[in-house]
Amino acid sequence: MRRLALAAVLLLGACSAGPAPSEVVPRSAAAPQPADASTVSAAPSSAAGPPPSCDATASLRPGALPQAGQMPDGSTMAKIAQRGRLIAGVDQNSYLMGFRNSFTGEIEGFDVDVARQIAKAVFGDEKKVQFKVVTAAERIPMLQSGAVDVVVRTMTITCQRLESVDFSQVYYQAGQRVLVRRNSGIAGVEGLADKRVCVASGSTSLGNVVTRAKTTVSVPNWTDCLVMLQQGQTDAISTDDTILAGLAAQDPYTEVVGSRFTDESYGVGIPKGQEDLVRFVNGVLERMRTDGTWRGIYGRWLTPLGPAPTPPVARYRD
């Protein structure tokens, strides 16, 4: 009996150790934000005055492409050939455009295949390319420092960027839209006025949305935005439809809404002053457009965006 009484006392003590019904159990700590996340109120600008104006998408006319493995002496392409590999800046966080395959460890996507076509034109072998992962904010500095030969990373051609780097002709025409959680009630960019929106630093998307949203959060990578949306730290993500399609494919509880409210013309970024490489890359893109390679790459990666459109028409200023 004494043992039973002792057990009863212990059981009573265990039951009384928890909080009383009137006590409030503290909520778990808030989910941490991605590294380098920051709230911005205006798009950063490197110029004190208004943005420059130009015919941004008019590039340099290509000549006849030299045979692979026979680059002209003294050319930028010959220097790349002598090194034995093309060095291309790409993304690894944008599913469909530039991402790391979790099974193979290889970087894949539409942009990656475009870079491989440039390598193939130089060497006759698309595998002779070294990929360097760069964030949106690192694209121009990497080109200026000579750390990469080209950048193929959903890079919109703008007059302001043309002051720092050169571009190929347009190889893909995208447009900015909005990604939200399903049943959010947000139908497009017009619904962001009282919302918290995530964008990647160094992207044109930042300037396009910062005045349309109540709060804009800037992070290094688009996958950081997806995590913040999933954790309820932001209400929406706004960027190019190519990138949003990749994010939506990774989370069935999200959807892309609204129509395009900008035109984003992607070009291959090239260091300033390397006109021979600009013309060479334009020749590669011209060939891709006419021989079906462009459509083949689209079919491999971008069918979530719909049937393959007509490749962008080249525009030249000379």
Automatic annotation (TrEMBL):
At the top level of its lineage, which domain of life is listed? Bacteria
- Taking every annotated instance into account, which residue ranges of this chain make up the domain Solute-binding protein family 3/N-terminal? 85-305
User: Which Gene3D superfamilies does this UniProt record tie to the protein?
Assistant: Periplasmic binding protein-like II (3.40.190.10)
Q: According to the UniProt entry, where is the signal peptide?
A: 1-19
Comp. bias (Low complexity):
34-48
Output the SMART domains linked to this UniProt entry.
Answer: PBPb
Q: Name one Pfam family in it.
A: SBP_bac_3
Positions of region (Disordered): 19-56
Q: Which UniProt keywords apply?
A: Signal, Transport
What InterPro entries is this protein classified in? Bact_solute-bind_prot3, SBP_3_CS, Solute-binding_3/MltF_N
Instruction: Give the family from UniProt.
Output: Belongs to the bacterial solute-binding protein 3 family.
Q: What is this protein called?
A: Glutamine-binding protein GlnH
